[in-house]
Amino acid sequence: MRKPNYEKFPHLPVPGAKSCATGWDAIASRLLEAAGLSRRSRCVLVIECYPGVDEAQVRAELSARLAPVVAPDPREALLPPDKIEALVAPFLGGDDPVFGFLSNLTLPQFFDPAKVEGLRAQVAAFPAGLVLLVGCGARLIADGDVFVYADLARWEAQLRFRRNESANLGTANHTLATNLQYKRAFYVDWRVADRWKRPLIAQWDFVLDTHDPRAPKLADGESVRRGLRHAVTRPFRVVPLFDPAPWGGQWMKEACDLDRDARNYGWCFDCVPEENSLLLDLDGVRLELPAIDLVFDQPRALLGDAVHARFGDEFPIRFDFLDTVGGGNLSFQVHPLTEYMQRHFGLHYTQDESYYILDAAENADTH
Questions:
Q1: Cystine design at 160: which of 121, 127, 166, 302 (Cβ 3.0–4.6 Å)?
Q2: CA of 268: how far to CAs of 185, 207, 282, in Å?
Q3: What b/e readout covers 196-225, taking b as 16+ CB neighbours within 10 angstroms?
């Protein structure tokens, strides 16, 4: 086989973008400058987090460098665990390990209004200095003088589930079976968080990228929005992701230059914006953010008027590589009609499939 030329980390240069701050020291310096405490006596710095972001790390790293006068934890205002479990239970299909119903919950429903008011009063009680709020729901406590959004792609969130590094929204279930964490995230957490995130994109002062905890990056919010607007004016790719499967094969290892010691690769998600990342090159520094942000921010320009009118700010097509070469038979696919999908799962459309055979082993059978 010829040398692989498959680009696994495609990135999009953004004209006129400001460079990112890289590393916690540089990030803290950038935020202190934005806080402008030399010009004003008080600043509330709000860092809203997508589920899966390591809130404790973000809070600890910034607290050590920014020395806030107070750093209330938004988690203190969450409902008790039993009430959160009761809130999400109707969407999880009981004990079934896969099936559920897409949630229509909103983030404020996970919080106790009286406790939220208590944290708001705590923030307001400090007339001077830097107040730091970090966490999912931080924007419920205060709008903030400086607003940072710490985002995370769903694929990275799934990897953190697998490593027992992350829990579902409002829980401490780090050691729950990964498939159950994913199910809860798919039907509830990500729907709630996306519903909360959509209107905030236009308000981001900064975006915090902690996909690689060893090299966090902070980007100017307008540079990120500039990148999203630029993406829809030209061809671009998202960052593909690869995963094994029960029927997975060996072809992608060579074609995509992947780990030869891995058991197999069954899937390559090459364009599934709900899962993939988008790499923006901001003045030579690459910022990773969920590709779904592009769909949320530029749906009409990305999809066109007709598709947008039918599907809204959802990307209705997915592009995958499926590899069975040297593996097993592809799993049997069953996709219900749209009416069934809407009634039983809350999905607005069904999934039709077509296949294009890129390569095949000798005597391969596609029946």
A1: 166
A2: 21, 27, 27
A3: bbbeebeebbbbbbbbeeeebbbbbbebbb
> Terminus-to-terminus CA distance in the chain, angstroms?
26
pLDDT digits (tens, 9 = 90+) for 92-142: 988 888 889 999 999 999 999 999 999 999 999 998 999 999 999 999 999
**How many CB atoms sit inside 10 A of residue 17's CB?**
23
Contact 296, 273 (CB under 8 A): no
If we measure between CA atoms, which residue out of 347, 343, 211, 233 comes closest to residue 294?
233
Residue in 200, 185, 177, 180 with CA at minimum distance from that of residue 105? 185
pLDDT above 90 coverage of the chain, percent: 82
Residue 49: which residues within 8 A CB-CB, separation 6 or more?
55, 58, 134, 135, 136, 138, 150
What pLDDT, on a 0 to 100 scale, did the predictor assign at position 2? 64
Which position has the token pair 């959160």? 84
Mark out the alpha helices in the chain (DSSP H runs): 24-35, 55-66, 81-88, 113-124, 138-141, 154-162, 178-184, 190-197, 221-231, 251-255, 292-297, 299-303, 305-311, 338-345
Mean pLDDT of the 214-235 span: 97
CA 128 to chain centre: 34
Query: What region does 170 belong to: left with phi over 0, alpha with psi -120 to 50, or beta?
Result: left
Q: What angle do CA 257, 258, 264 make, to 5 degrees?
A: 130
Q: Whole-angstrom Cα distance, residue 179 to residue 95?
A: 12
Q: Residue 332 pLDDT more than 90?
A: no
DSSP 32-95: HHHHTTTT-SEEEEEEEE-TTS-HHHHHHHHHHHH--SB---GGGGBPPHHHHHHHHGGGTTTT
Residue 301 tokens read as 């320009």
d(CA 301, CA 198) in angstroms, rounded, equals 16
Q: Is 22 helix (H, G, I), strand (E, B) or coil?
A: strand
Residue linked to tokens 């966090």: 216
DSSP code for 110: G
For the segment 131-180, what is each residue's pLDDT rounded down to a tens digit? 999 999 999 999 999 999 999 999 999 999 999 999 999 999 999 999 99
